[in-house]
Amino acid sequence: MGSLMGKLGVFGKSRDIPRTRQLILDGATGGPVADFTLVSRMREDKFGMGPMDIASECMDHTLAGIETTGDALCFLMWQISQPGYEIIQERLRDEFRANEGVSFEQLPYLEAVVKEGLRVFPSIPMSLPRCVPPEGASVDGHWLPGGTLVSCQPYSMHRMDEAVFPEPDSFKPERWLEEKGLAERNRLFFTFSNGGRACIGRHLAVAEMKTLLRDIYSSFKTTPAEGMVADMSMDDQIFTSRPKDQKCILRFARWEELV
């Protein structure tokens, strides 16, 4: 088992999550797994998947579906906990309390905050390579021969055109509430990629983020914990990103206690 996990290091190293690690090992080596899981399906003979194939698929899901959402929330909550950003938390609180029980689609400020967080801090900053079809293609007046490898990355896409994203390094949720230029902002929003190969878990990821933000900021205000001096700059891990010092400590205080 150890050698199998060692080989998987070529795909990327996830954080040490014991239950997830055990699921990967169980799924790859024939251990007990629930019948309703994808792991159970992959072990069916008709798919012809060996231990390495199954473990690799599990690792892909771990990297893409767990760490990315957690990192996005970490960076976003840290950002809106900084001095001068209290108004964002207050607006979230007011929107939640004024609209209890409504669907997330009816909470425009929450949508704007989540989208701005994913724009400024894309969980997967790496390039997403694609191969030009054999017949070639013309893109924006440039001819690309067939077989050419092309790629772009969310981090750059979200900063390259200041006509679309003025002050691109600034965290401004309000930009997503303006109708003017919204179509172009959405076109260049590349956190989950676009098209047929876009992230299949994007709706789940956004729902998870919105649920946690609602549950926290409807009741609490967050601020950096006393003594929190760890470096929170983005550390590119090739596939994902994370805080450079891998530490983010926030202080939670109930809104009622702050009156």
Automatic annotation (TrEMBL):
Cofactor dependence: heme
GO molecular-function terms, A-Z: heme binding; iron ion binding; monooxygenase activity; oxidoreductase activity, acting on paired donors, with incorporation or reduction of molecular oxygen
Alphabetical list of Gene3D superfamilies matching this protein: Cytochrome P450 (1.10.630.10)
Residues annotated as binding heme: C199
UniProt KW keywords: Heme, Iron, Metal-binding, Monooxygenase, Oxidoreductase
InterPro entries, per the entry: Cyt_P450, Cyt_P450_CS, Cyt_P450_E_grp-I, Cyt_P450_sf, Cytochrome_P450_monoxygenase
Family per similarity comment: Belongs to the cytochrome P450 family.
PANTHER family noted in UniProt: CYTOCHROME P450 (PTHR24305), P450, PUTATIVE (EUROFUNG)-RELATED (PTHR24305:SF164)
Name of the protein described by the UniProt record: Uncharacterized protein
